[in-house]
């Protein structure tokens, strides 16, 4: 049995650009990723997503403007934790991204994303996100660099995002 821990992950889109942040500390340090983290006690997933976005790059987005587009599950060989990552996107937000203690934000053209400096799984599930497909994916890692096995499926309705477990 795994111990499930929920995380949020938010990507902002503006025309053909995607906002990523270079993680400056903690889990995934030195990788480009969306903005997110753990839930606070009593917090809903969507409120946590909006809060983490604000904390990590100073952008305000209404929780209701964040679209839940996918679920990612990560397990690690020899470990009992399952990271349950809820992925959101939004085209509606306020403010200019600012660097914080945790993240250095930068806009990337979606044709020139820095996959070499991202989580290896991102190459697999980003095409779903970039093509506006809902998805569920599971990745089993050895360490943090090597994917031993994975599974990804397209979902056909938002309700399916809540049926996986
Ligand atoms: N394999 C992976 N691929 C990916 O694209 N995003 C991942 C990932 N594994 C984790 N993430 C995301 C989920 C979440 O947004 C973030 C990790 O959360 P946190 O920043 O909260 O972690 P930390 O341990 O640094 O937390 P704090 O110590 O509370 O700052 O990385």
Automatic annotation (TrEMBL):
<dbReference type="InterPro" id="IPR015797">
    <property type="entry name" value="NUDIX_hydrolase-like_dom_sf"/>
</dbReference>
<dbReference type="InterPro" id="IPR003563">
    <property type="entry name" value="8ODP"/>
</dbReference>
<dbReference type="GO" id="GO:0008828">
    <property type="term" value="F:dATP diphosphatase activity"/>
</dbReference>
<dbReference type="InterPro" id="IPR000086">
    <property type="entry name" value="NUDIX_hydrolase_dom"/>
</dbReference>
<dbReference type="GO" id="GO:0005737">
    <property type="term" value="C:cytoplasm"/>
</dbReference>
<comment type="similarity">
    <text>Belongs to the Nudix hydrolase family.</text>
</comment>
<comment type="subunit">
    <text>Monomer.</text>
</comment>
<protein>
    <recommendedName>
        <fullName>Oxidized purine nucleoside triphosphate hydrolase</fullName>
        <ecNumber>3.6.1.56</ecNumber>
    </recommendedName>
</protein>
<dbReference type="Pfam" id="PF00293">
    <property type="entry name" value="NUDIX"/>
</dbReference>
<dbReference type="GO" id="GO:0046872">
    <property type="term" value="F:metal ion binding"/>
</dbReference>
<keyword id="KW-0378">Hydrolase</keyword>
<dbReference type="GO" id="GO:0042262">
    <property type="term" value="P:DNA protection"/>
</dbReference>
<feature type="domain" description="Nudix hydrolase">
    <location>
        <begin position="1"/>
        <end position="133"/>
    </location>
</feature>
<keyword id="KW-0479">Metal-binding</keyword>
<dbReference type="GO" id="GO:0008413">
    <property type="term" value="F:8-oxo-7,8-dihydroguanosine triphosphate pyrophosphatase activity"/>
</dbReference>
<comment type="function">
    <text>Oxidized purine nucleoside triphosphate hydrolase which is a prominent sanitizer of the oxidized nucleotide pool. Catalyzes the hydrolysis of 2-oxo-dATP (2-hydroxy-dATP) into 2-oxo-dAMP. Also has a significant hydrolase activity toward 2-oxo-ATP, 8-oxo-dGTP and 8-oxo-dATP. Through the hydrolysis of oxidized purine nucleoside triphosphates, prevents their incorporation into DNA and the subsequent transversions A:T to C:G and G:C to T:A. Also catalyzes the hydrolysis of methylated purine nucleoside triphosphate preventing their integration into DNA.</text>
</comment>
<keyword id="KW-0460">Magnesium</keyword>
